[in-house]
Design a protein that fits this description.
- By secondary structure, the protein is of the alpha+beta class.
- It folds into two domains: 2-167, no CATH class; 185-317, no CATH class.
- The chain has ten helices and eight strands.
- It has helices at residues 51-57, 59-68, 86-105, 154-167, 185-197, 202-217, 224-236, 240-261, 268-294, 305-317, and strands spanning 2-11, 13-14, 22-24, 36-39, 71-79, 113-123, 130-134, 150-151.
- The strands form two sheets. Strands 3-4-5-1-6-7 form a six-stranded antiparallel beta sheet, with helices on both faces. The protein has a two-stranded parallel sheet with strand order 2-8.
- β6 and β7 form a beta hairpin.
- α3 (86-105) crosses α4 (154-167), α6 crosses α8 (240-261) and α6 (202-217) packs parallel to α9.
- Residues 175-182 have low confidence and may be disordered.
Length: 319
């Protein structure tokens, strides 16, 4: 068995009331995965900091990790090198952390990110320490296409940890193709959300948000823009004014999407409008995805094609 310590800095985030580390407990589907903790206190990781780590990761990374990182993910655990390689074990930590970031998005818009994760490991009763590093090669942006700092409360961090435990199935294998026959409607919608979050271009963001909603609300391309805007508005609110607002926002979103996919250019005044529409659509998607993940009893997005279509026809007819 190998003893290991994982360390990774989180960026673009702050938490001013964190009194003790947040624990990322996974569900039974991923019970073999390591358990990470999130802290902003150097004292929590002090025992893991040594000259060997500093030499292995370099002065710049070490200084950021120990002096500048707003939050740090860490984990002390063991793994069997005959079952999983050190780099694969490191990747499991990074996948958990990436899924936790989706939990943060489920609470509010943000650009929380991480870069290199480090794993130091040695055999039990061994004297030679080894080091590995890796990163998931994406950068996350907020709905303005920026990497701004966002403050989360301890309560919000715990909510994201609960979201991770209740909803996330960690997959470390690369997916070659995604289709509704092999993957759930919610899973595919999640991929579109990730695409939107990994993109700084607002036009491309809006195309991913629209695709996310299409995946969840539609079964065909007939009257695409009108039908989707109508269904999402009816689904999210019972208030007439709110429904009208959502309907108009999504109609505008589809107008921008059409221009993007056909290569049109935007004037300056349209860029300002697009920025507002992206922010509104991001919030709409957040509400929908929270329903999709958190509703267990009767989830419309779990229904088959025919019953799914019937649900939305009934919703429309019962206005």
């Amino acid at each position: 068995m190998m003893k290991s310590v994982f360390l990774c800095a989180l960026n673009n985030i702050a938490c001013n009331d964190l009194s003790k580390a947040i624990t990322l407990n996974l569900n039974e589907i991923n019970e073999s995965f390591p358990i990470l903790k999130i802290t902003n206190k150097l004292s929590d990781i002090k025992t893991y900091l040594n000259r060997g780590l500093k030499e292995a990761i370099g002065n710049i990374e070490y200084e950021y990790l120990t002096q500048k990182a707003p939050l740090i993910a860490f984990c002390e655990s063991c793994f069997d090198e005959n079952v999983i390689s050190p780099i694969e074990y490191l990747d499991e930590h990074l996948c958990i952390l990436s899924s936790f970031l989706f939990g943060l998005w489920s609470i509010k818009d943000n650009a929380v990110d991480f870069e290199l994760g480090f794993l130091q490991y040695q055999r039990n009763y061994g004297y030679t320490t080894h080091y590995s590093s890796n990163r998931i090669c994406v950068t996350r942006y907020d709905c303005k296409g920026e990497c701004s700092n966002v403050t989360f409360s301890t309560k919000e961090l715990n909510q994201a940890a609960i979201f991770l435990r209740n909803n996330m199935k960690i997959e470390t294998e690369r997916i070659q193709s995604v289709n509704i026959q092999n993957h759930h409607r919610i899973t595919i919608a999640n991929y579109y959300i990730q695409n939107a979050r990994n993109c700084s271009d607002l036009g491309l963001k809006i195309t991913s948000y629209c695709s996310c909603l299409e995946c969840l609300f539609l079964n065909d391309s007939t009257e695409l823009s009108h039908k989707l805007s109508e269904r999402v508005a009816l689904f999210l609110s019972k208030n007439k004014e709110d429904r009208i607002h959502i309907f108009k926002i999504l109609k505008q979103a589809y107008s921008f999407r059409s221009k993007v996919v056909h290569g049109d250019r935007f004037k300056t005044d349209k860029i300002k409008e697009l920025t507002m529409i992206v922010q509104e659509t991001d919030e709409i998607c957040r509400k929908v995805m929270n329903y999709a993940f958190n509703t267990k009893e009767y989830n419309v997005f779990d229904l088959g094609r025919d019953k799914h279509e019937e649900y939305f026809i009934d919703l429309l007819m019962n206005i």
